[in-house]
Amino acid sequence: MTPPAHDSVRAVAWDDGALRLLDQRALPQRVDYLRCTGAPAVARAIHDMAVRGAPAIGIAAAYGVALAARARYAAAPATWKQAIETDLALLLDARPTAVNLRWAVERMRAKIGALAGDPGEALLNEARAIHEADVAANRRMGELGAALIEPGSGVLTHCNTGALATGGYGTALGVIRAAYAAGKITQVYAGETRPWLQGARLTAWELAQEGMPVTLIADSAAAYLMAQGKVRWVIVGADRIAGNGDTANKIGTYSLALAARRHGVKFMVVAPLATLDTNISSGREIPIEQRPAGEILTLNGQPVAAPFATAWNPSFDITPADLIDAWVNETGVVFQPAPAKIRALAG
Amino acid sequence: MTPPAHDSVRAVAWDDGALRLLDQRALPQRVDYLRCTGAPAVARAIHDMAVRGAPAIGIAAAYGVALAARARYAAAPATWKQAIETDLALLLDARPTAVNLRWAVERMRAKIGALAGDPGEALLNEARAIHEADVAANRRMGELGAALIEPGSGVLTHCNTGALATGGYGTALGVIRAAYAAGKITQVYAGETRPWLQGARLTAWELAQEGMPVTLIADSAAAYLMAQGKVRWVIVGADRIAGNGDTANKIGTYSLALAARRHGVKFMVVAPLATLDTNISSGREIPIEQRPAGEILTLNGQPVAAPFATAWNPSFDITPADLIDAWVNETGVVFQPAPAKIRALAG
Asked: Of the candidates B29, B218, B303, which has its C-beta nearest A194's C-beta?
């Protein structure tokens, strides 16, 4: 079997003793890579969005922990487990909303607790396991989600949830890939995703790599697109899912869910179990990252707005569970997510 | 009384025998003016969006007819009324959605029919009358709309509906001006209004001219802003209103109306009677202008999306009447617009 072209897109990779990140700020104009040799560089890459997407930043952080352990153990073999706490905190603080970041760091921390001697190989293997499990979860979610889609469908996605945002293949975009391969999708629409334009810069680029047709829209055009009957499913990822099914995802997702409900368009969230935060009971408790006003007030570094304007720039919003028809995770599909169904999953 | 600063913003003005247009493509970086001496230049300025906003393009077209009449009469005094039809068609075709353009050209055509001899002065006076009536209508709508707003309100607007979009003062922004002057508004939120960024470039500039606080948001953040309880009214203009109250306005308006309804936020349309098209019974019949894909695929002339991506770029959408709480026009307020109420108005 010829490997599909998307396997060539590796946002996060371990390469010759360091973490190699595809710098997503330069796409689609340039395909540049960053080489991170320590946790501070990884945390900075996450904070500055060289790597983004909830699963991808979790994986990057796991490799970051492995890098940190190598350095801390080399510097002070007796006390490295105390010293590495600084690195873990740095990684945890890099972005506040995606729970995958915390999940990955906590898993690495648990591994650290069980180690004796040089931690290098064991932690690198743990990071690799997280990475491989994410790709496998995406493949499985792709199958499960694609099975829900009727042949001849137009679908709409938001932000970027593909190979660039994950360990590989993608969450929402993985479902779209699988459904497209199965001949079920006639047209993919992608919101450009202001202010960072992940849809225009990243999703269009990923789909173009594979020859899939993609039509960009202004995010605000989605409701009118649905009114035209062009969309059967809205398919999105998630950065954190609360115990009641409320879902934090890229700003604009909530608007899509409202428009979908008005038009009888189905709404699918595709996210691995690591996205679930059972510590919180509703979306109100999810911390929402505020990004710099400059992302709204400038374009390509040039001011676009009048000098006295300010901006409110939340990076995520909350879609209430009542607007979600299906949450696809690697264990199955939760239809109409609700607390009891989610407790059963987490149990 | 000191004249308010907004009177200094004149998007459309008759100046020394020609039409002077503030070139809105250059704002807020540069305040440039175009001097149009004939109908083709006016039609081009409308088509290319040097002048935009439904009332403003109607007024510009009226002056364009006056310019055309001067030239056609000078060239052929006996047959100018036939010859000018070419100019009228050019102006009518410049943009398809705003009915004010057609309304203004038809009013000028009616005047032409009644004229004998040199039409120059009479048609210039007719254009001036249209212009002055628009400003007066805006002032009146400002009072009527402001009366609906509760003290201490946050309001959200979309696109630009101010002095730049009208003969002066503004429609939706006129209501916001009047309500702000009355001390009722604590915060103005403005959607940046992709793809053309009228909110960021024009509305923020206009409000900053008057020292009013304005906070820009990504259009897709509006629903989440409402979920935070920050908005009591959404206040927008209109390009065409059908006989049943369905309203065409800048793309994204419909999304705002859906989010407003979900959150109990009131939705106000502010547009003069000239925006009503009684020839059509519902929004389905309103022609929606498709703008070039390049507006989505490039930023500041630089490509932003992958080379193989396409875009769907409707400039307007339709907000169904059932989502509109109040239509403010210069004769009063139509609450919950519906066919019978609108027929009574037009009668």
From this structure: B218
